[in-house]
Amino acid sequence: MIKLNEHYTEIGNSYLFAEISRRVNEYRNNHPEKKVISLGIGDITQPIAPAVVDAITKATAEMGKAKTLRGYAPYEGYDFLVQAILKHDFTDRGVAIEADEIFVSDGAKSDTGNIGDILGVDNRIAITDPAYPVYVDTNKMAGRKIELLPCTPANGFVPAFPETTADVIYLCYPNNPTGTVLTKAQLKPWVDYALTNQSLILYDAAYEAYVSEADVPHSIFEIEGAREVAIEFRSFSKTAGFTGLRAGYTVVPKSLTAKTSKGEILSLNAMWRRRQSTKFNGTAYVIQRGAEAVYSPEGQRQTKETIAYYMQNAKIIKSGLESLGLQCYGGVNAPYIWCQTPDNMTSWDFFDLLLNKVQVVGTPGSGFGAAGEGFFRFTAFGHKEDTQEAVERIKEVKS
Ligand code: MLT
After folding, report:
1. Distance between CA 55 and CA 286 in Å, rounded?
2. Structure confidence by residue, pLDDT tens digits, 81-106
3. Contact 146, 127 (CB under 8 A)
4. Ligand 1 site: residues with CB under 6 angstroms?
5. Neighbouring residues of 57: CB distance < 8 A, sequence distance ≥ 6
6. Which residues contact residue 34 at a Cβ distance below 8 angstroms, ignoring those fewer than 6 apart?
7. Using CA positions, which residue lies closest to atom 1 of ligand 1?
8. pLDDT of amino acid 399
């Protein structure tokens, strides 16, 4: 008889967003006449920038001609995209990264989930709570021990250092789900902690394009010493609407090392390259051309306009909920608003109430971890009119 990876029995039957879609689909099937507004999963609603669409269209035409056809993409990404990333995301911002430290991929979800492949199972892991469920689920799948670092209003959503020294620490800023940030001054102690304890920080910066305040870093590599301790994950999903196109990248500095049980010191950059070339066959050429176009002047202008549109929604949600007396966080440097549920309701009870009474979907805070209980996440990725309507409907529930 086949033996199961038993760690899968420890992670519950379904992934958070799969469970939400199941419940929403069930509701829709039972109430086809009702218009459900989703401010749940952070998925895009605005068309992809014309500059990106044009680049993809052109690249697609190239695939139809023998002369310009491309087959397997390089495992680490085409040089045209790597160079564009390097220039715009790092060099122009004064951050020293080298081209062979950038690994283009099909998105930050895969990379944050797969990075554990190159890390030993006996590493002690620290993960903020609440957190994007991929970090906890994938570490549980591998059988690793996790210490959760609560992030609540009481600590201003700034996690305390782990009680037991952590080998690997997951940080996501701007944060999903709370929408809160760490300033450079607040992130520096984490880099110092990792330098002192020889820990690795896995820094998920998928939402960096939403940073609007000057003291909030776009990259952990803006912090001195981070090259010695951090891997950073970036995504084109939220930056430029690639949730369905799939592209992201991971920066693994060549200065990062890890040791084997025999005491050998090996490069994490070399190990990640080995992992990717074995299990991943590159991001599609046409998608990489689309990602390259994000960095063109028109691409930059168009994607920034879309981000501004979403952040307008964030304001609508935040001010609407605050006018009801609900305490809200985030929504300034991130497309998520994290709000306290009314009357101490549990997150799932509030989810059911909003879905059943006013057909508004959000994400229950407890789905992101125990410290998320009593909170609810709304995303700013909706259509403006729907977002306004959703807020008006929520006001009806409260009145
Ligand atoms: C979210 O809603 O947290 C994200 O959109 C999910 C994801 O990026 O996979």
Report:
1. 8
2. 999 999 999 999 999 999 999 999 99
3. yes
4. 41-42, 109, 132, 176
5. none
6. 27, 28, 359
7. 42
8. 64
Round to whole Å and give the CA distance between 37 and 63.
39
H/E run at residue 272: helix 268-279
> Residue 397 above 90 pLDDT?
no
- Which residue of 24, 114, 132 sits with most ligand 1 atoms within 8 Å of its CB, as the best mutation to test the pocket? 132
Work out which ligand 1 atom sits closest to the CA atom of 134: 9
Q: Which of 231, 253, 251, 250 is nearest to 119 (CA)?
A: 231
Atom of ligand 1 nearest to the CA of 132: 3
User: What is the share, in percent, of the chain residues with pLDDT greater than 70?
Assistant: 99
- pLDDT per residue over 195-246, tens digit each? 999 999 999 999 999 999 999 999 999 999 999 999 999 999 999 999 999 9
Q: How many CB atoms lie within 10 A of CB 221?
A: 24
Q: What's the pLDDT score for residue 14?
A: 79
Q: Which residues contact 33 (CB under 8 A, 6 or more apart)?
A: none
| Atom 5 of ligand 1, residue of closest alpha carbon | 42
Task: Check if the beta carbon of residue 393 is closer than 8 Å to that of residue 356.
Answer: no
pLDDT, tens digit, 9 for 90 and up, residues 136-158:
999 999 999 999 999 999 999 99
**CA-to-CA distance for 35 and 33, rounded, in angstroms?**
7
Residue 125 CA to chain centroid, in angstroms? 18
**Which tens digits make up the pLDDT trace of 159-168?**
999 999 999 9
Domains of the chain from N-terminus onward: 6-47+298-398 (3.90.1150.10), 50-296 (3.40.640.10)
N-terminal to C-terminal alpha carbon distance within the chain: 58
